[in-house]
Amino acid sequence: MEKHQLFLMNLPTHIMLEILTRLPPKTILICKRVCKTWLELINDPHFATLHFSRCRPGLVVHHSEMFKKYFKLVDFEDAYDYHDLPHDTMLKFNVNKLSSFFDANIVVDGSANGFLFMRDINYKHETLYICNPLTREYIELPQPGSVARYPSVVTHGFGVASKSGEYKVVRIFHERELDPRTRACRRVPSSECQVYTLGTGAWRTVGEAPFSYNSRLLGLSFRGNLHWLIEDLEGYELISCFNLETEMFQPFPPPFPGRKLLGSLAVLGIWVEKSWAKEIVIRKIPELAGPSFEVVQALKIFTDGTILLLWGDFFMLYYCTKTGTAKEVDLEQPSGPNSIEAIHYVPSFLSLKRFPLENVSPF
């Protein structure tokens, strides 16, 4: 055993780098404790970049039970004849230190290159964070200096600009004006947009957002753009695209007009944007039907065609497209009433300390 240990310790650095960067995050966390040499190697920014390029994507799953919340990292195992969602308590984390009151106020609103965008919602104001659950680091963003007298925040987004590689948080809000007759606040139709670039320490107002935004929907990041499902001033649904490089909005039409899925009883349709061809339609599952389960998210399409769904706030399911049947995923959740949230996540050892002007804290 000692000979094997000495052999590993004496390997050239570039070979050790090749070996360690191919290991899963859980194993790397163990390797950091083996010796100082490995710790320094794993903490090197080059290691983080190389490991991220080889790491498999997964999910951050968020469980809620009364005032208790916890997060865990879930991996994807995907082969033609097999799929699974392995998870481990070692990759479980909580964010008690971030929240002012109970961590039940923490929600995850985005993910980019291993960083999570999180919000702490309390009765005074909302606090925004960027955190890395693997390095156990977080940044608390400064409060935006709103240009509106009575702002009402309706949506956020988080992503990476495609050319500059800058990480940006986008905040869209409506102005509210005071009705002189009733003394009540009423919403103004237009929206304002603010951007925070990590490493700058300040928010910037980039102008007016040209559409009315639905506060229930977050900006989804894809290839350097944030996307929202929105309504124009006439009530028609569009997809709004915000380019994180140019910081400009551009709308484009959805695959079908109006709000209904072509008059069908489907709860989810999956379309391909190139030709807006409909690929998959998922019908209602009777045992899950009801007002509490109207929102359905497709999280992953496995190689064998099985779709991983988040159905409402309480069920994660495997949906077999061949048979039209569903099976609940066992995530070893706590007993009793609870809810589930999930977001795509690629584990990363990139440190938040890479951003100047940011106060990075451990959790």
TrEMBL record:
Transmembrane segments: none annotated. This is F-box protein. It comes from the Eukaryota. Residues 5-50 form the F-box domain. It comes from Sesamum radiatum (Black benniseed). SMART domains: FBOX. Pfam families: F-box (PF00646), FBA_1 (PF07734).
